[in-house]
Amino acid sequence: METLSINSPTKDSTLPSGLQISEEVEKRYNVVRSVGEQCIHDDELKDLLAKKAAPVCYDGFEPSGRMHIAQGLMKILNVNKLTSAGCRVKIWIADWFAYMNNKLGGDLKKIRVVGEYYKEIFQAAGMNSENVEFLWSSDEINARGDEYWPLVMDIACRNSLAQIKRCMPIMGLSETEELSAAHILYVCMQCADTFFLEADICQLGMDQQTVNLLARDYCDAVKRGTKPVILSHHMLPGLQQGQKKMSKSDPSSAIFMEDEEAEVNVKIKKAYCPPDIVEGNPCLEYVKYIILPWFSEFTVERDDKYGGNRTFKSFEDIAADYESGELHPKDLKDALSKALNKILQPVRDHFKTNSRAKNLLKQVKGYKITRVMPTASSTDKEDLSVNTSSAASSSDTGLQVSEEAEMKYKTVRSIGEECIQEDELKNLLAKKPAPICYDGFEPSGRMHIAQGVMKVTNVNKLTSAGCQVKIWIADWFAQLNNKLGGDLERIRVVGEYFKEIWQAGGMNNDKVAFLWASDEINGKGNKYWPLVMDIARRNNLRRILRCGQIMGRSETEVLSAAQILYPCMQCADIFLLEADICQLGMDQRKVNMLAREYCADIKRKNKPIILSHHMLPGLQQGQEKMSKSDPSSAIFMEDEEADVNEKINKAYCPPKTVEGNPCLEYVKYIVLPRFNEFKVESEKNGGNKTFKSFEDIVADYESGELHPEDLKKALMKALNITLQPVRDHFKTNVRAKNLLEQVKAFRVTR
Length: 750
Prior knowledge:
Its main location: cytoplasm. The protein is of the alpha/beta class.
């Protein structure tokens, strides 16, 4: 290929900013600008080239099969133009993106082979690699994950699901197709790539423009002054009529970089090339976008009776002759075949003589091109079986369960309103002395008794049965769900405040580890994020939307892209923490089921056992759970005695009615597990009475023997005894006091 020249004379010009543009800058601009069919924006590009001697240009590709000339020759032309104008080009080998898009069946080893094959082609065909870096996305992201993933999450938080779906053309999809969760993650990641690579110019195809514009919009959202310039190159059509671009899954549409001369000739001979018509004529497009830029001319050889040989220097002259009929389709095709074969011959020679290249091509030719997503099918809720026998028993696997294991089982099982599956739980406790139990929370404001007292009770039961409890402080998840306005510093403060409460509230910390999600994920990102991506690509968007309940959302709400990422990450947490038991609320059940479905999909034998605890209702009628954004619905862990009394006095507590009675629920799920009894003191209504079971309380309440007023007084007393150590701690401990003051000042927001 001939060396590019940037010496055409131009006059100095001035930008709207007032910056004077020299002749040299104008020449560089003309070369760089020639790469793009469209530029957003020309003035920004001139300004960039005037200020920066070596701007960074981002280009990239998914390794996904054999390379056609639209990928190969056009990229080489564009890269060589850019480097000749002083640009540094970073070529992003998007292996993780090919994986998420299920190219080559999502086989990363095959994807890596294809990436190496691509590099061989670029080298053989004449890419100037002096100012070019080939960067594997997986390697770069793994090396700097602590920078990359917070950026991806921020982009996801700031864009609605609808906005992200409008970018589906970057993967050759439409927003109305059946999408996987990975397709949403893909867009957010590609947007982040621009900033991660510190790109000044995004030099990608016209089909990638939506995500490049998303990057510019993100700059506005974060008040970033300098936006990436978008330089979108033309998309070469396929060989046949109506094929908007070459496709490697349809060999008839494409010429591949190592096609033999005869193959090129046959393909061009069969190509759509209507006489006298320029518009939509792929053969003329190849001349315009490949041959003329490569050779600076196009030579047609023909008999004198058909006009003789002619060398064209401009596409306008070719188009004029073709439209007039002076240039016949056969002569055009013959000249095009000859020029293409001349360009491709060094590539053929390289793949015949270089043993490494030859081996790579052989492997790539053997790969099946695929795009079918490996989405998991949703499974119905698994049947529950309850075994309450205290004697030694045998599970379905034939394992003998000792009395000690049965006692441990009873303790652990008492935590859950529901257990999936009970036999699996018995087997686990019989085989493993210290199973790992995963619990967690979003730090998002003051703590109410449903989070505080119930968690202390449940954790203490688990540790007494020998479990190790990992409490996941889900700071990144609170940010994704826009808790406390997504402010991570505030979220961190709330997390520390929660830990102070549990310590003061009597949690046995001997076998408990508090783990900050951000710290753990950053430390094990190489393991975590591929897991998130795999979960995302195996689940369709509808399946993930059904998990909205875990964030207190419905699937009909307007969601951000972050709320698609959140369930995939929470599912991955279970495996990152190597959890045997998921001990979370009933509202988290759907994502825990997702984890079990994932195990079935990847043929993982040991599934996490789901132990879902009861959700305490709010204080008022119809409030399904306590809410920190509605103080009237909740009793907070540091509420003063008078506050607790006032809230319980105002609580919904209909006489003789048990169903939907929050006061009775607090007795059942907080007081009885805490004290093993419930004392009612009454001078009027039958005197003092100590209940040992909830059934006895219910019987007396339904009959009218236990009056609502007496129930409330006894409940107040028991709650205040429980909460007093927490109040004392927050009054006497300076650190705790300071944390509480900060938390109370934070506005609870979603």
